[in-house]
Amino acid sequence: MVMSGTGAAELMSTTETGAETAWEQWAPSVLLVEDDPGDAVLVEELVADGTLKMRLRWARSMTEAAEVLADEVPDCVLLDLHLPDAHGLEAVSLVQGLADQVAVVVLTGLAEEQTGLAAVAAGAQDYLVKGRVEPELFGRAVRYAIQRKQTEQAAVALQAGALQAQENARLERGLLPRPLLRGEGVRVVARYRPGRAQTLLGGDFYDIVQSADGTVHALVGDVSGHGPDEAALGVALRIAWRTLVLSGITGAEQMGRLEELLMAERARDEVFATLVSLAAVPGEQRAGVVRAGHHGLIQRTGPDVEWVEVPGGPALGMVPGGAQWPTAELPVPTGSSVVLFTDGLFEGHVGRGTERLGEEGLLGLAREGAGLDAEAFVDRLIGRAESLAEARGGLADDVAVVHLNWN
Fold it and tell me: Would the pLDDT of 12 be above 70?
């Protein structure tokens, strides 16, 4: 039995010497599915006489092939289209169903070339006509089929990655809201930087809304954990918070509603969220702050930069139904700014050791940039924290920062 390959297998470039040498050193595994013992022996002879050495295994039916594919997936399947338990394109479909990552080369008779073309259209990588190919061309046909299948899989993976990137971008737009401001005199600088492990997805969230009476509301929060579930929960909490603010629900009642949402939406019982919500009337030298398990904030007044802690309650989800979240009054002199942020900003490592930047370290970085304007201050703060953690690959956690001034 001599076989012939399609044109694609005959277009071997003479400039591929190095690549061909590498292939000659590699012995791909090939499963021959053929019920005719005579044809099987001749395939073995083609393999033995060719330069491309193969590890050949023989199955006499589709049932036997299924047993082999259940234990080991070869690099290529040589598939006869006239089997006792599978015929024509049905055989191609069955092999693809058993191992969709394997290259398939179908074997046809001299008068069945159209069937071979139909098999390629149905998903096979190549076809060979029994009786019309030499050993060397046979090896090239198998090699090209394997390479073509690898290229197809790479293209599918690339497309899947592109679709995933689009989905991530949609989610990122939810994580990065536009401030809803109604009047003059409110200045906001907001930044969101995902941790290195998530690329786009993270559980940190923020928002800024100015209600109809002029009150400025700001939120920064952090869902425990990383990944799409936590990111989706962060988006849900942010949207719910904005809805509650616009509905006039603030303070402890607002925290209670958000906790109800968290408990309904979280993927696991141990998931919780910390957040801090601020409300201030422009022109007034104070703000109401509600803190749920979150750390303190930074206040800038002229050249002075201070870390401020206010009374608060537990994180959402930690004491379901039994928590209290008091509203603390924060003095904010004219010209002062308030900076809200998540703990990813100060929990990064410093150098190669186990030491972390910490709250004191972050305050030191903030004081170094005390004279900068709002945008430069925030960008420098994040940049310095990132550079200090560079030896450990950068900041591993998400970072959300809101710099707010309403006077």
Answer: no
Let me know: does 2 contact 30? Beta carbons within 8 Å: no
Residues present in the chain in total: 407
Give the pairing of strands 187-193 and 126-130: unpaired
Type of residue found at 298? I
Place of tokens 């259209």: 121
DSSP for 172-232?
Answer: HHHHSPPPB--SSS-EEEEEEE--TTTTT--SEEEEEEE-TTS-EEEEEEEESS-SHHHHH
Q: Report the distance separating Cα 313 and Cα 274, nearest Å.
A: 10
286-292 β-sheet, strand order: 204-210, 216-223, 273-280, 286-292, 327-331
Q: How confident is the model at residue 22 (pLDDT cuts 50, 70, 90)?
A: low
- Asked whether 310 and 366 are in contact (CB, 8 A), the reply is no
> What's the rounded mean pLDDT across residues 194-216?
81
Give how far the C-alpha of residue 39 lies from the chain's centroid of Cα atoms, to the nearest Å: 49
Query: Is 93:105 a contact under the CB 8 Å cutoff?
Result: no
Residue 344 has pLDDT above 60, yes or no: yes
* DSSP-assigned letter for residue 8: G
Domains of the chain with bracketed CATH: 3-159 (3.40.50.2300), 176-405 (3.60.40.10)
The pTM of the full predicted model, rounded to 2 decimals, is 0.61
Give CB contacts under 8 A, 24+ apart, made by 127-131: 127/5, 127/6, 128/3, 128/4, 128/5, 128/78, 129/3, 129/4, 130/1, 130/2, 130/3, 130/39, 131/1, 131/2, 131/3, 131/4
Measured from the Cβ of residue 284, the count of other Cβ atoms closer than 10 Å reads 12
Task: Find out whether 217 and 245 touch, Cβ atoms under 8 Å.
Answer: yes
User: What one-character DSSP code corresponds to residue 344?
Assistant: G
